[in-house]
Automatic annotation (TrEMBL), chain A:
Major location (coarse): cytoplasm
GO biological process: CUT catabolic process; exonucleolytic trimming to generate mature 3'-end of 5.8S rRNA from tricistronic rRNA transcript (SSU-rRNA, 5.8S rRNA, LSU-rRNA); nuclear polyadenylation-dependent rRNA catabolic process; poly(A)-dependent snoRNA 3'-end processing; TRAMP-dependent tRNA surveillance pathway; U4 snRNA 3'-end processing
Protein name from the UniProt record: Ribosomal RNA-processing protein 40
PANTHER family found in the cross-reference section: EXOSOME COMPLEX COMPONENT RRP40 (PTHR21321:SF1), PNAS-3 RELATED (PTHR21321)
Localization: Cytoplasm; Nucleus, Nucleolus
Annotated K Homology domain residues: 160-207
GO molecular function terms attached to this record: RNA binding
Cellular component terms (Gene Ontology): cytoplasmic exosome (RNase complex); nuclear exosome (RNase complex); nucleolus
Biological source species: Actinidia chinensis var. chinensis
Segments forming domain Exosome complex exonuclease Rrp40 N-terminal: 34-71
TrEMBL record, chain B:
GO MF annotations, alphabetized: RNA binding
Keyword field contains Cytoplasm: yes
Keyword Cytoplasm: yes
Protein name: Exosome complex component like
Protein source organism: Actinidia chinensis var. chinensis (Chinese soft-hair kiwi)
Domain Exosome complex component CSL4 C-terminal, residue spans: 111-153
Pro residues bias locations: 48-63
């Protein structure tokens, strides 16, 4: 899948890049406005890479580096799975696998007032949305969507949660549906919550289904579409 | 105006006199349980009698019933400047949190301090207008140099600072690209290298 506009003889788009690679030379592209996403940096006329990963391009003018790590960098609007670490007077301290603990205000729930503050024990798993994520400050979370409704946010009870990389979480959330989830969904029924910080929660009726789904997902990051389907079929054959 | 300057060295806790005879000035304090004036610094004691007996000097106002001289102790070591409520200070922002920013006070007036003083700028003291809509992240960032005024001695941990005037606020800041930014309005500063505009509460110079 080579890029349509090749801006230099050796185009880096959709290739793996490492920090320090100069991927674009602005002096050869006149009169264009380019939008740089994460992982890219402008040094006068050259655009160089800051993070290792794959360089991506979307028409008309967006460039960014996609990479997969275990560490999560909080970003506004992300849906993540957090674990309650502590509760203070005004907010809960939630660990979202980022550089700092995040604050979840005690009133950030649908119909939340000072009288019906939820009581979360330490270790409760929550599906939350990141509201504020500034560098140097603790991120702020919310259990409501932008309009104030609960909309699936809140505590996730029972069942199993495992941690994976951020790249796998993005793959599972991509549309059209990821091949692993499609293949699993044809034979098993399960419920799944995926956090962009790399945490995945799986819920099913029997423990063997939960284990099967988790193992299938954990194995699928580096496999191609066809390989994922084959892997899922093999796992399902063992069970049935 | 001093009339007598005695070269008497005193140490903290030394009795300077009775509260009925002396008023405690800087470096001295009155212990209420036995109405005695003690020294609180090591240094020279000096007495400043009210110039009621010298007609060519201006008498102190509103002190008419109080004819006691004031005793002061000046430290023997020159100590650095100490923040005093009302003074203008230069501080570096250390941490920005949801409802306040903590800063290290570096200069008081035009003198630099010799020891560490912490200050806190609460979100309601950042500016004078629309204080409930203040966004901390678009007022200060860690590392900014701000000019602030001391509101009060605050609590045990830090002084309370305020930037709620036009001439108070961020004086110097670094952009994410590492260059010193140029102020373009009272809310924005621009990086000269990349042209990016960042929001701060800028002091009007």
């Amino acid at each position: 899948m080579e890029a349509k506009p090749s801006n230099s003889p050796k185009s880096f788009i959709d290739q793996s890049v490492a920090p320090g690679d100069v991927v674009l030379d602005l002096s050869s592209m006149a009169n264009q406005t380019i939008k740089l996403g994460g992982g890219l940096r402008q040094d006068c006329d050259s655009i160089s890479v800051m993070k290792s990963g794959k360089l991506r391009f979307v028409k008309p003018n967006k460039y960014w580096v996609e990479s997969s790590q275990k560490r999560y960098v909080p970003c506004v609007g992300d849906n993540v799975l957090g674990i309650v670490v502590d509760s203070k007077a005004d907010n809960f301290l939630v660990d979202i696998k980022g550089p700092a603990l995040a604050f979840l205000p005690v009133l950030a729930f649908e119909g939340g007032t000072r009288r019906n503050i939820p009581k979360f024990e330490m270790g409760t798993l929550l599906y939350v949305r990141v509201v504020k994520a500034n560098t140097g400050m603790n991120p702020e979370l919310s259990c409501t969507d932008a309009t104030g409704k609960a909309a699936e946010y809140g505590p996730l009870k029972d069942s199993y949660m495992f941690e994976s990389s951020t790249g796998l979480a993005r793959l599972l959330l991509s549309s059209p549906t990821c091949p692993v989830l499609e293949a699993l969904g044809k034979k098993l029924s399960f419920e799944i919550a995926i956090g962009l910080n790399g945490r995945v929660w799986v819920h099913a009726d029997s423990p063997s289904s939960v284990i099967l789904v988790s193992n299938a997902i954990m194995n699928s990051e580096s496999l191609s579409e066809v390989q994922q389907k084959i892997m899922v079929d093999k796992l399902l054959q063992r069970v049935q | 105006m001093r009339e007598k300057e005695e070269l008497v060295m005193v140490t903290p806790g030394e009795v300077l006199g009775k509260a009925s005879e002396l008023k405690a000035g800087r470096g001295a304090y009155v212990a209420t349980h036995n109405n005695t004036v003690y020294a609180s610094l090591t240094g020279r004691r000096s007495l400043n009698p009210p110039p009621s007996d010298s007609p060519d000097k201006v008498p102190p106002p509103s002190d008419s019933p109080d004819k006691r001289p004031t005793v002061e102790v000046t430290g023997h070591k020159a100590h650095g400047a100490v923040p005093v409520p009302g003074s203008i200070v230069i501080a570096r922002v250390a941490k920005v949190m949801a409802r306040m920013a903590s800063a290290d006070i570096m200069c008081v007036g035009s003198k630099s301090v010799r020891e560490k003083f912490s200050g806190i700028i609460r979100h309601q003291d950042i500016r004078a207008t629309e204080i409930d809509k203040v966004d901390m992240h678009s007022s200060f960032r860690p590392g900014d140099i701000v000019r602030a005024s001391i509101l009060s001695l605050g609590d045990a941990r830090a002084y309370y600072l305020s930037t709620a005037k036009n001439e108070l606020g961020v004086v110097s800041a670094e952009s994410t690209a590492g260059a010193t930014m140029v102020p373009i309005s009272w809310t924005e500063m621009q990086c000269p290298l990349t042209g990016q505009i960042e929001q701060r509460k800028v002091a009007k110079v």
